[in-house]
Amino acid sequence: MRDFYGVTLPNALLLGTAQYPSPSVLQDAFRASGAGVATVSLRREAGQGQAFWSLIRDLGVRILPNTAGCHSAREAVTTARMAREVFETDWIKLEVIGHADTLQPDPFGLLEAATILCAEGFHVFPYTTEDQVLAARLLDAGCKVLMPWGAPIGSGLGLNNRHGLRMLRAAFPDVPMVIDAGLGLPSHATEAMEMGFDAVLLNSAVAQAGDPVAMARAFAFAVQAGALARDADPMGVRDMGAPSTPLIGRAWL
Amino acid sequence: MADVTIIGAGVAGLFAAHVLALRGLTPRILDRNGPPGPHGCSWWAGGMLAPHCEGVTADPVITRLGADAADAWSAVTPVTRHGTLVLALDRDRAELARFARRATDHQPCDSADLEPDLPPRPGLIFPTEAHLDPRRALTDLTAWLAARGIGIEAATADPRDIVGPVIDARGLSAALPDLRGVRGEMIVLHAPDIALTRPVRLLHPRHPLYIVPRAGGLFMLGATQIESASRAPATARSVLELLSAAYALDPRFAESAIVELGADLRPAFPDNIPRVTVRGRVLHLNGLFRHGYLMTPALARQAADYLITGTKGELIHED
């Protein structure tokens, strides 16, 4: 597995911490998922959420603060700097929202903020689209990881643009990439891993499930299955049927 | 001479006094702020008695033990039993289907048949649910107790200095381990031209809203749920979200007057289920989270059972 800014993760899951029925369910879901990274939002929760924050810290996983809800580069940069102080980490999931309904990234604001934060020594995980040109610019700015979306945040649609994602993966084969946002089912995560992505980042798919703990376990199996399948070199597709039993040499009775 | 000393005159403390008095005990009530008011989080509640709607995200124990809350409250304060109406905007229709799948005791409905004053939408009706006015309930409880010679003394107290059994119902001030504050913000609007007879919940993936009608053309809009222990005034973002959702439900809310903005903290344990934590002769009634009025009757009853007969209900935690 590729490393993320020098860190190797225990599995290919990064899990968000919002919208669970209770902190107890959140903790159980994390344990069931085996996720090694928890994303946390500074904006609303962490300001004076010491009790909640200590519950997250008790998970014993790496923290990836995010800039969720920021609509401009300036807001995102300010939030990232505050997150570095509060959570004592250089990691930042950089989210600059361009549209309130689709929650798609603002590519221009994202690049601007990534440039500033990389220069300040942050380890930036940019929430981006499958756009290759933007990806190249983010890498030029100093990002060592990319987080292309599967679909709009919270939509549960899965991988909306498979062709674009495959192109992105092929264009930058050595860059660690996380599919971030839009996954709803374990099969989406398996597919992302089969396509060669290095991890998936989820929140709603687990937190909004009727049984978040069971769904967390399902996603843990799913990323494992996808990674195993990718490493096993899939057979590939063909248009014609091919018998699995040879016709020549069959006993003639 | 009191049989039990209760510290904290919020919904939990007052209802515990009510239950103990019904069982023939004489409680004494102390609260550093005196009678209930804006200093306590009970003041800011919605007052929905909605065990089935809450069951969509809460532990099943909330639905089960909250089921007779409306009956219990009827003994002291007016309870409106018109059910809960659950609606979603057209583009969020999937939220309605999911809510229906996960909730119990409801039927599909057309809002026009139940709340003809609202723009018509398909929805769900939870016919057995109810609501009350929390401030009226606190006042009525106080009066019910006063009529039996039980007053509320404005005094600070440390449970360790008190002789005999103690019920500590101070909420977050009790500073129990694992107890945290969950911030909630609410708005009261005056919209006398809008007629609603029951609480309406608007499902939304990002900004869920409930609107509870109160007497005098008032509507309580709630409530945000933020993992923060900040008691700062309601933020512009939260107010925008709540008002936008209300406006989407019925554009006439845009013309209403904002009578009140409130923000306070709900005491909650990590599982968001209330507990009676027993520490020697002190019973802590706490962690009511967003289920203060829904779960207080069951919590108070289990505390009284434990005190009087030693029965250990499922909310009892011996420390």
Summary of the model, kept short:
Chain A is of the alpha/beta class. Chain A is built from 10 helices and 8 strands. In chain A, helix 4 (73-87) packs across helix 5, helix 5 packs parallel to helix 6 (132-141) and helix 8 (186-194) runs parallel beside helix 10 (212-231).
Polypeptide structure, described:
The complex is a heterodimer of chains A (253) and B (319). Chain A has helices at residues 23-33, 42-46, 50-57, 73-87, 107-119, 132-141, 162-171, 186-194, 204-207, 212-231, and strands at 13-16, 37-41, 62-66, 91-94, 123-128, 147-148, 178-180, 199-202. Chain A has 253 residues and is of the alpha/beta class. Chain A is globular. Chain B is α/β, with parallel strands linked by helices and 319 residues long. Chain B has 2 domains: 1-80 and 130-176 and 271-319, FAD/NAD(P)-binding domain (3-Layer(bba) Sandwich); 84-127 and 180-268, D-Amino Acid Oxidase, subunit A, domain 2 (D-Amino Acid Oxidase, Chain A, domain 2, 2-Layer Sandwich). Chain B has 9 helices and 17 strands. Chain B has an 8-stranded mixed sheet with strand order 5-6-4-11-12-13-10-14. A 7-stranded mixed sheet of chain B has the order 8-2-1-9-16-15-17, covered by helices on one side. In chain B, strands 3-7 form a two-stranded antiparallel ribbon. In chain B, strand 11 (200-203) and strand 12 form a beta hairpin. The model of chain B has no long low-confidence stretch (mean pLDDT 94). The A-B interface holds A 21-25, 27, 44-52, 55, 154, 210 and B 57-59, 101-102, 179-181, 205-206, 226-230, 268, 270-273.
Strand residue content of chain A: 5-15%
Summed up, the helix count of chain B is 9
State the helix count of chain A.
10
Number of domains of chain B: 2
Mean pLDDT of chain A: 91
Report the count of strand segments of chain B: 17
Keywords:
heterodimer; A: 253 residues; three-stranded parallel sheet; B: 319 residues; alpha/beta; FAD/NAD(P)-binding domain; D-Amino Acid Oxidase, Chain A, domain 2; 2 domains; eight-stranded mixed sheet; 9 helices; 17 strands
